[in-house]
Amino acid sequence: MKKLQLLIVLLLLGASTLFGGVYSIDASHTNVGFSVKHMMISTVNGEFQKFDGNFELDEKNNLVALKGEMDVNSINTNIAKRDAHLKSAEIFNAEQFPKVTFILDKVKGDKAYGKLTIKNTTKDVVLDYDFGGTITDPWGKQRAGLSLSGEIDRRDYDITWNQALEAGGVVVSEIVKLNVEIQGILKSEDEF
């Protein structure tokens, strides 16, 4: 009986440690951005303005889990006509595929390995990872920050629309740069 009680206590302590490091993404201090070369001479930047997710840090502040979901209909490049084209069936097809997701598999050194899903196509990606640290904000909440960046080939996700330029090259590069700045707030035990 004592072994069973000890096992229950250990499980409860383990759960409290596990959940003590789960952070909800703070949308007002997070940016899910991307950039792509346009007409081979300049860069267009954009972002997803609606997203949700959480991440988990262990007791040594190692990132052990991260899941994010972006709303394709919230894409913003500051040009309404371009945003409408990006949401159309030619590009993201937001009506049929309204979400983009990322799920972390592991972190090794300064690299984050995970699965990125766009248009129901899931590919392994490797992103640069930087942990910004943790703080207690002026209102007593524990916060943590991290950054993810890297490149993907949009053709891997069946995003193939393009036009050839008369002088050579294409309107939109196949390579898309990702730049995600995340800030999270530690969930309290009553949020689990």
From TrEMBL:
InterPro entries attached to this UniProt entry: Lipid/polyisoprenoid-bd_YceI, TTHA0802/YceI-like_sf
Residue span(s) of domain Lipid/polyisoprenoid-binding YceI-like: 22-185
UniProt xrefs under PANTHER family: PROTEIN YCEI (PTHR34406:SF1)
Entry protein name: YceI family protein
Organism (species): Sulfurimonas xiamenensis
Lineage, opening ranks: Bacteria, Pseudomonadati, Campylobacterota, Epsilonproteobacteria, Campylobacterales
